[in-house]
Amino acid sequence: MRRDLYASDAPVYSNSFFKEMGMVVTRQVSLAFRDIEFVRTRIIQAVVVGVYLGSLFFQLDPQLPTSASEDQTPTIERYGVLFATFIHSALAGASQIPVVLTQRPVFYKQSDSFFFRTINYVIAEALSVLPMAFVETTLLSNSQTGEPSDVGGCFMLYWFLMLVLNISTGAFLRALASLSPSPSVGQVMSGLCIASVCIFSGYILTFDTIPPWFIWIYWLSPTAWGFRAGVLTIFTSNAFTREQQDYALQLFGIERDTTYIWAGILWLIGYTIVSLCASYVGYVYLRFDGSGGSGNGAVQDSDAEERNDPDVMELERVLTERSASELNREPNIKAAAAALADPSSSSTSDFKSSSTTRPDPASSEEVDLHVESSLNKRDFIPADLEFRDLWYSVKRPGDKRGTYSLSLLKGITGFAEAGTLTALMGSSGAGKSTLMDVLALRKTGGRIEGEVLVNGRPQDKTTFSRIIGYVEQNDIHSPKATVHEALIFSAFLRQPSDIPRAEKEAFVEQVIETLRLEPIRDRPIGFKSAGGLSTEQAKRLTIGVELAA
Q1: What is the separation of C-alpha 78 from the centre of its chain, rounded to a whole number of angstroms?
Q2: 231/365: higher pLDDT
Q3: How far is residue 249's CA from residue 231's CA, in Å, rounded to a whole number?
Q4: N or C: fewer beta carbons within 10 Å in the chain?
Q5: Domain boundary among 229, 253, 287
Q6: Three-state SS at 451
Q7: Arithmetic mean of pLDDT, 347-359
Q8: DSSP secondary structure string for all residues of 515-535
Q9: Tens-place pLDDT, residues 120-171
Q10: Which residue intervals make up region (Disordered) (predicted)?
Q11: CA triplet 63, 67, 69: central angle to 5 degrees?
């Protein structure tokens, strides 16, 4: 009998656009400020640079030259401190590149499970750095000349200009990171862009000395627009006479046109929007995770990772040692598996050894496996999975024809019935993870042939994500989040929006109890090598994230 297809009419995302945005922004801001060392370091850096520049250019000569025969030092020093503060403010966003690349695998995993819309994640990334941009801009802008009278009544305009420059260049560098396949490529590309904007900012090479074939870099550089607007803000203030203003601007080939101040601010805002769009394109249309296949269809065999995984190797060693002693218990193991597979049996296990009845090796009778759990059948919708003649092919390395000639799966047929436990077994590299990735629609490259049915109907990615939880081989989580936060985030974003908040929280508590996560619920996930969750704890959390959905 064919079951109804759960969530066939459900929207792609469980929450409305703005409700989802609020949750994603809250999470990103929380994660950003949870890295105390990173926040503290950036604040100290801004303070040190501000104090350094303020003391270096303390009490500048207020009398600017009006001709070449006079001392040019007062003007040159002001240009120097302007360039230094603007460059530091602009390049403060370079520290976000490793953050983006570290979080990208987490984004891929959550995006594939329809946690949130990609545009909301991009917006949340931008908003999460605003508080730090405010702090850095305030600390740096107060050191711009050492004499507040230099900017007269335009200090807030100058401060706002530096803030917009900080935000726009940060957005540009994040976009660059989202388009980079690896941290090394991202660092190289960012270094090239940073060098270009510094050289063609209008200070090292003045506008009238830039070669015509490089002038396009100047007009595309956010630093050049910000520097020009900043220079006009300072040197057109009422702190200087008209003659001093004209000569100072002429010295660096800048035209006296105050419309460039607001034009520069508007251009930087537009630059920010374009960079956010570029980040969106990088997240949606480019994939550099390596686990689900790359966008170009190259060979990405996820089972190959198991061969060098120390955890998998250790597990295989233990299973090999135990295999001989378990042979005489095979009939009873089959009986226990049959009892577990019976849909009419009790709820799923919480894995308490005290609640499991061990089969008697001397007996050949079937043994019921009684289990306990705070979760029950009404919390889940049954679904039958069937796949027929499934093929998965990728491009062979070095094949210039670009054909999918290397088959990793060849005519695989099988099924998994609702209420049963189906084990997929095989040696490392046999294709287990590849088959699971194909069935879960996690392969983004290669060619898939065959038929996959869910409750008797063709598999649909959006619908399928509503009825399954896919626990991947690698445990991918935000390291700064706690165990409880990871589960709550999954439940709030993936469960239907008509379910009350209290009911979602109660369900998360049931998941925590079932998976024995209570002792570590408020513990940061972290990294295993740095004192974070162990492999076993991280795996239970990964299972919990899928159960909470």
Answers
A1: 40
A2: 231
A3: 8
A4: N
A5: 287
A6: strand
A7: 41
A8: TT-GGGTTSB---GGGT---H
A9: 999 999 999 898 888 888 887 765 544 444 555 677 888 888 899 989 988 9
A10: 338-369
A11: 100
